[in-house]
């Protein structure tokens, strides 16, 4: 039954045109962020620098979160509105229903951004070098900096992976908010607003809990590439699980008719 719940959720995502259109949207936004520099044939432009420009542009970065949320963050809204949730819960159980939703939402958000950015850097790699070896000290930073010397593609993939984890977290936050306000627009827009608010709130916390820095793969724990990469994964999954627990709490209340 657990596999059935996850399979149903996965099919719902991967059979939806919204998933593939969102990937294209992420890639398109990435190119928009550097279009002026490409058009001007800016000297010294690299794939790494282009990725940093995109991640550093607040407005476009937040729109990526919007695309990440489109495939699945609002799925609970449909389940609740049309009461699909009742037969599914009867067949799979409430706990399996909830966590299959959370996992699928996280996975779809992650893949939307990760694949979109992979396409972005792949296309760029045909036009420009991955990194600039002449300006390593000013363009490549820890904790993943050492990877750039021998494996520049691994350096780029690590940064994209962490950024995609952050987007996945915000999609789960959107799913959670949809359990409180089951409106499609709210579920899709909430991750963008939540990312702004929570990043600002964590700015006053220690660096290793600062979501603004974590999203950008900053060297917050100063422990090297492997340990830092593991830490990034742990933090974003931990926060996603906490959001999932809140989602579970509210869904249970709705099932028990404790929410009007």
UniProtKB/TrEMBL annotation:
Ranges annotated as spanning the membrane: 12-34, 54-77, 98-126, 153-172, 179-198, 225-247
Source species, domain of life: Bacteria
Name-wise, this protein is Uncharacterized protein
Keywords on record = Membrane, Transmembrane, Transmembrane helix
């Amino acid at each position: 039954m657990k596999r059935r719940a996850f399979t149903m959720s996965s099919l719902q995502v991967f059979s939806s045109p919204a998933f593939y259109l969102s990937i294209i949207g992420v890639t398109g936004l990435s190119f928009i962020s550097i279009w002026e520099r490409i058009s001007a044939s800016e000297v010294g432009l690299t794939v790494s620098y282009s990725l940093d420009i995109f991640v550093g542009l607040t407005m476009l970065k937040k729109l990526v979160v919007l695309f990440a949320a489109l495939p699945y963050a609002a799925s609970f809204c449909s389940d609740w509105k049309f009461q699909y949730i009742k037969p599914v819960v009867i067949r799979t159980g409430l706990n399996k229903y909830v966590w299959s939703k959370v996992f699928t939402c996280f996975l779809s958000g992650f893949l939307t951004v990760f694949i979109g950015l992979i396409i972005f850097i792949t296309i760029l790699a045909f036009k420009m070098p991955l990194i600039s070896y002449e300006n390593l000290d000013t363009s490549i930073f820890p904790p993943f900096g050492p990877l750039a010397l021998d494996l520049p593609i691994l350096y780029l993939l690590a940064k994209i992976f962490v950024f995609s984890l952050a987007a996945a977290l915000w999609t789960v936050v959107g799913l959670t908010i949809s359990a409180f306000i089951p409106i499609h627009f709210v579920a899709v827009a909430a991750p963008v607003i939540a990312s702004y608010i929570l990043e600002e709130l964590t700015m006053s916390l220690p660096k290793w809990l600062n979501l603004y820095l974590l999203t950008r793969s900053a060297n917050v724990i100063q422990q090297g590439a492997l340990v830092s990469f593991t830490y990034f994964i742990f933090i974003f999954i931990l926060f996603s699980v906490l959001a999932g627990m809140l989602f579970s709490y509210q869904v249970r209340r709705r099932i028990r008719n404790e929410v009007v």
